[in-house]
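pasting for ref
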Amino acid sequence: MASDPKEVSSPPFRNLQMLARLLILARWLILLIAGLVFTFALPRIPSRWNPFQAILFVGVYNLVASLIALQRPRSLVRRSWLWLLWDGAVALGILPFTGGYMSPFFLLVLLVVLEIALFFPWKTALALLATVDALQVAASVFRGLTPVDPLGVINRFMALLLFGSIAVLFVQVLRWEEEERLQAMRRARQERALNEIFVKLGESRMDLQRVLQVILESARDLLNARAVLVLTPEDSRNLKVAAVWNLPSVQAGQTLPRWPWLPRERQLLTCERGQDPWPPVVQAPEIRYVLCTPLRTAGGEIQGWLLLGYETTPPTDSLDLQLVRALALEGSLALANAHLLQREQAHVQELQRFDALRSTFFSAIAHELKTPLTVLKTLVASLDRYPSLPATTQREIRQSLEANLNRLETLISETLESARLEARSVRLHPGPVHLVARIRRVVQRLQPVLQQKQLQVQFPAPEPGPVVRADPRFLDRILENLLENAAKFSPEQGILQIRVQVAEGQATVCVADQGPGIPPETRDRVFEKFYTSPASSSQGGVGLGLYIVRELVRLHGGRIWIQDATLGGSEFCFTLPLYTEEETDASGRQTDPGD
């Protein structure tokens, strides 16, 4: 890539084959003119060589040079110094033997001057021109057979210098015009390419993946990059690989630590392998240079960084660098629009989800309130006849009143607690808790619920068991919700199984039932707020119990999941961190297992 048109050393002709033919024609014309001069002016030109021997020598040389130039026209440019030495040696070497400054082979010196003008930068060409001019004067007067005319020698020296200077300047003007034409063509191609990129980005409809694909393809095809990497900021300390091409060691979506030298104010940064800075993510040995530019919008907001890998020197031409900057600007604007669209779509989805949750909530609340209120309203009418009713009927009425009041109380409690969890206003007071003893206490407290369906609880864990770091009150709530959920879906006279395991600094509690089970495709949804599966629709509830369990487990630093139970139903498992000796309770008290 040429940087300065004044330093262009190639001829101003793109067709080297044609240039070679013109130079060959000039050689043979010079030989023809020399032959005619020696034929008609032979008595006037004293010569040390037989003129026809000189013509034969130059003819053989021209034949060899013509064959080489026709077969390898590029050698005129690549080996211009060698051609200059050959032609210069022949021209200056034959002058003293064919008449000195009166020799017709002086025209070979003009051929050398033309080659200097065609194949060398103008500064070098002028220096070579002066050298060749001085050498031709020395060769013309050396061993001359006739008296030398000083004025004639000076005139020819000045004439050759003037002719050569005009040729050098004329060719240089042609070079500049050719360079300007090529630059204009490059600008037109780049503008057309940028317009095509802009069209492709518009056709991507602000889809993030399609935008990234357009950026990769444009950097690969237009900038001739060997590898392309698009990075976006994930947070203040990490980067995310948004898109990658031809870097096998890097995967899209990968998280990388942020590099402190990533350009922010500077538009371009060139890195060379073996020198600092060098992006650690580029491990491919064939990549020796990396060109990095920020994807900055016109407003100054950085959307990411574009890294281009090269095997050789990266682009340094001003037009190529302008193309890099233009691509970075268009890419940053497209990424900004794509991210904005994603946020808007996420916002719309969140509003739709909220609207659906609101509808579900009010529908579930209305249904859950209607059932116990209907029962209570029916039972109130029987209170007037209460003393005269049989004892069995009175007991059933009391039990029904108590169950429906408890149902209302649970509904209100779960609604308020889920609201506090969603508002993040729940504060834990964790301390050491003996897990096995705590589970036994909760099972004992839930015996009335379990006995209604004659359920058997299997919990073979020996005491004391692990000591976990938890808030006793909320741990009881987690266990109660899981056991009540298991009892709700277990058949009459079924079995509930509780297991406790300890591994890798945490305790795992699993509650299994013999219910119908939960399909794998819906297991993640059962923990969502207000979600009720088709199997649970007949069991009542508004879908808050498992949501509360999940949030409380998360607050304790654990996780919860569902798996198939050995009993045939579902098994809910959650983890809690173990309490270590180094930890102390903020209040200085040790939590009692039965607290």
